[in-house]
């Protein structure tokens, strides 16, 4: 089923590359669009879960759109940039050019897969594997020198049970998974000849972008400039404000982008007298939801 129809450009009476045809007059209107399809049942499950939690759903937003709103500048969208949001269950990729999305892809490799690889490889609980990934994980050998730690003792969840693992062994597990993710996207970019659409390079965001060495490995694999994308001031209603310190992390890119998406067609501001009062209140509440499940 079609979830999104995103205009790339319009033609009105033969005039090409009109970004926005609103208010124009003509006899013939054509458009080149980017169509996003997905399983309606999955979308309905998400809506149902939100409503059962007491949250009213007004719209569904493609994750790449929300993340791009949070981390891409207007110049990057115009010149041409790829954005890769490495989340928990999937990695979401999109290319922007001329201010419009031109290509999108969802790859079923993300943070949870890195964690599961460590859990299986070391025979340790998932919770311990997640902690190891966050504190000691890396995907380029140069980061091994920064750790200055050869071994880690991991509790196994029962009295006195523990396991000693080598930190370098974590690299041998995580690096091939990260390489696989980047190579899948690199092959698609090359097959569809999309490199010319990304002169500004690629922006990595999402929690998976914080894994040590992801930026360097991506640069090596894509042979393009790569930066880590943090939530930034990209919205008109935020023009006189700053992004709260509470959410200055790639982890919150999608959540912050969703708020910006809502504000696009609203006169409300996310700030009150230049202070991040509303924004901080929202994200403190969101973080409390997460802690409730820990």
Describe the model.
Helix 2 (63-71) crosses helix 9 (253-263). The model is unreliable at 236-240, 271-276 and 289-294 (pLDDT under 50). With 294 residues, the chain is α+β, with helices and mostly antiparallel strands. The chain has a five-stranded mixed beta sheet, sandwiched between helices. Strands 2-1-3 form a three-stranded antiparallel beta sheet, with no helix packed on it. Strands 7-8 form a two-stranded antiparallel sheet. The protein is built from ten helices and ten strands.
Give the tags.
alpha+beta; 5-stranded mixed β-sheet; 3-stranded antiparallel β-sheet; 10 helices; 10 strands
Q: Globular, elongated, flat, extended or rod-shaped: what is the shape?
A: globular
Number of helices, where a helix is a run of at least 4 consecutive DSSP H or I residues? 10
Radius of gyration: 21 Å
Distance between the termini: 35 Å
Instruction: Report the order of strands and helices.
Output: EEEHHHEEEHHHEEHEHEHH
Question: Which regions are unreliable across 5 or more consecutive residues at pLDDT < 50?
Answer: 236-240, 271-276, 289-294
Number of strands: 10
How large is the share of residues in beta strands?
15-25%
Mean of all residue-level pLDDT scores? 82
Largest sheet: 5 strands, mixed
Helix content: 40-55%
Task: Give the spatial strand order of the biggest sheet.
Answer: 6-5-4-9-10
């Amino acid at each position: 089923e079609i979830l999104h129809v995103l205009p790339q450009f319009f033609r009105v009476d033969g005039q090409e590359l009109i970004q926005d045809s609103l208010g124009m007059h003509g006899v013939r209107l054509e458009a080149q669009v980017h169509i996003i399809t997905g399983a309606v049942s999955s979308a309905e499950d998400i809506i149902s879960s939100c409503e059962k939690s007491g949250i009213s759903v007004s719209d569904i937003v493609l994750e790449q759109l929300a993340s791009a709103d949070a981390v891409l500048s207007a110049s990057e969208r115009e010149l041409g940039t790829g954005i890769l949001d490495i989340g928990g269950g999937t990695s979401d990729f999109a290319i922007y050019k001329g201010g419009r999305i031109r290509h999108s892809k969802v790859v079923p490799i993300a943070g949870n897969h890195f964690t599961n690889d460590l859990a299986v490889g070391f025979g340790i609980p998932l919770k311990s594997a997640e902690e190891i990934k966050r504190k000691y994980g890396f995907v380029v050998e140069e980061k091994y020198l920064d750790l200055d730690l050869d071994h880690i003792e991991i509790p196994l969840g029962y009295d006195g049970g523990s396991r000693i693992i080598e930190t370098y062994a974590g690299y041998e597990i995580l690096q091939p998974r990260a390489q696989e993710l980047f190579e899948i996207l690199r092959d698609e970019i090359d097959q569809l000849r999309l490199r010319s659409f990304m002169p500004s390079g690629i922006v990595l965001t999402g929690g998976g972008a914080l894994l040590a060495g992801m930026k360097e490995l991506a640069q090596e694999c894509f042979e393009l400039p790569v930066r880590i994308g943090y939530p930034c001031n990209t919205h008109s209603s935020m023009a006189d404000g700053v992004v709260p310190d509470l959410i200055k992390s790639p982890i919150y890119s999608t959540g912050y982008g969703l708020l910006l998406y809502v504000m696009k067609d609203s006169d409300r501001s996310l700030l009150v007298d230049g202070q991040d009062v509303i924004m901080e209140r929202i994200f403190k509440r969101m973080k409390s939801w997460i802690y409730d499940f820990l």
